[in-house]
Amino acid sequence: MRLSRRGFIQRSSAMAAASVLPIGCSDSSDHSAPDSRRAIIIGSGFAGSVAALRLAEAGIRSIVLERGRQWTVEGSDTFPTTAALDKRASWTIPAAGSGSQGTTYAGLLETISGSNVSAVCGACVGGGSLVYGGVLIQPPKDAFESVFPYLSYDAMDSIYYPRVIAQIGASPIPDDILASPNYSAQRIFIRDVEAAGYTALKPAASFDWDIIRREIAGEIPAAASVGEYPFGCNSGAKQSTDKNYLKLAVSSGLAEVRSLTEVEMISEKSPRGYTVTCRSITADGELLERYALEADYLFMAAGSMNTTKLLLKSQQSGELNGANQQIGQQWGTNGDQLLAQLHPKVSATPQGGPACIAAEDRSNPNHPVTFMHSPLAFGTLQLQLAMSVPDETGRLSYDAIDDTVQINWSTDTATPSAMARQTSFNHLVAQNGGTEAPFIEGQIWHPLGGAVMGDACDEIGQLYGYRNLFVIDGSLLPGSAATVNPALTVAANAERVMEALIPSL
User: Fold this and answer.
1) Under a CB-based contact definition with an 8 Å cutoff, are residues 172 and 414 in contact?
2) β-bridge partners, 200
3) How far is residue 456's CA from residue 450's CA, in Å, rounded to a whole number?
4) Could you tell me which residues are beta bridge partners of residue 36?
5) Closest alpha carbon to 129 in 50, 61, 202
6) What does DSSP say about strands 62-65 and 255-258: parallel, antiparallel, or unpaired?
7) What pLDDT sits at residue 505?
8) Contact predicate 63/37, CB 8 Å
């Protein structure tokens, strides 16, 4: 079911009015009894970080639960690199009770495999903000309104998108850096884009350009400027949310972040609120303890895959008693397709990032395509992440035997949106005489949906059938971020939701 904007607002207005959070709470750190907080946030990525800061600013004490590690740059070998991947890149800790054996580690990225597609999601303090291309692209208005007819694009454009960019400290690539030898691939991409008749974009990027300048000058070891930016950034240039939103929330004294803390179950408690069962682990997956937390308000921000998994698991176990059959529905791939080409005009020397140049192909008005140019440390091999609005959505389900989330998705190779992506890419490659190169297929970097606004949740993310349980992350988006990567829209939507929930002070 897809509601109109008017119908959506009418359906959710009463719940929204009842959901404004009061100020103040008590604090406790004794694990012998349930630790009671006013608010619990599960997940510390873009949405969870927004929630933590805005709650703190309103005087509301919260605790942020993050299954992954806290990563702090302590030199040029803090993060793995694309040229030398190691265990730090992968979350390999098995689910509790699964009986899986082998080397385990709380690495940066979890891969969840399905029969024909796999989804990648962040597993660290800061979530996806540590392991994305670093670009915050605002979707075009027409594409946005086709995907989110119940939201005001004008409000997002004038209030929430700028708020996120300012809070993170993001900005477009400066001209002097773009003109440097390390960024010749980006300049060539702009020329290719313009020759193809597409529109070149310089979106805001969540990187400290002064640090990149120091890399280029040889003052510090090179990282982003030689294409080493996807797995954190060893120069410290990436402005992930642990450095802004979360840092400010924690410095207020009203937010606590617990890393290496996996949530196993969510339970309704009487007369109100929720109990969250956690297990504290080491970076190697060793169980330290299990304990329970209680809160009046629960915010789900673990990302599409894990927010949906926790909701389905807790509902199927009977711990969440509300009747909501829409959890797991309208899941999608954001129309992602990672394409590669061997470019004859790009230097074989490593090229700089982040993915700070993008392009829009609007030649097919029914299926617009956005490309995010992602130069790597591999020289002439150039990556383009093509994104479109997928024609169909799938669903997620929960397997209680293996304690895993299952992806139910039809192969997206012959749909109109998929053909539009390939046609646009072929035209782009033709401008430079390059050749398409085989690369990773069937891997999705932006899984979205599973608890979608208007179907599973209302306009402020409150899960239908439950009170004071809010979904605030990419699960709310119906399988698409409207032809762009979802980071900016997820964070901006979380800002919108939190503003609606917390009264002005």
Assistant:
1) no
2) 359
3) 8
4) 294
5) 50
6) parallel
7) 23
8) yes
Strand positions, DSSP E, 1-144: 35-42, 62-65, 109-113, 118-122, 135-136
Can you read off the two tokens belonging to residue 68? 């992954």
- Rounded alpha-carbon distances, angstroms, from residue 303 to 299, 311, 411: 11, 12, 22
What sign results for the dihedral spanned by CA atoms 54, 52, 87, 337? negative
How is the chain split into domains, by residue range? Answer: 36-71+104-501
User: Is the CATH number of domain 36-71+104-501 3.50.50.60?
Assistant: yes
Weakest mean pLDDT among 18-27, 180-189, 281-290, 374-383 = 18-27
Helix (H) or strand (E) holding 405: strand 404-408
First and final C-alpha spacing in the chain: 37
Helix H or strand E encompassing 245:
helix 245-251
Band the pLDDT of 442: cuts 50, 70, 90: confident
Encode pLDDT of 224-243 as tens digits: 999 999 999 999 999 999 99
HSE of 158, CA atoms in CB hemisphere, 13 A: 4
Task: Tell how strand 204-205 and strand 135-136 pair up.
Answer: antiparallel
- 344-393 pLDDT, tens digit per residue, is 888 778 889 999 999 999 999 899 999 999 877 666 788 899 999 999 99
Comparison of pLDDT for 21 and 52, the residue scoring more: 52
Do 238 and 232 form a contact (C-beta atoms < 8 A)? yes
Side chain identity at 142, as an amino acid letter? D
Q: Token digits for 502?
A: 């917390």
* CA of residue 416 relative to chain centroid, distance: 26
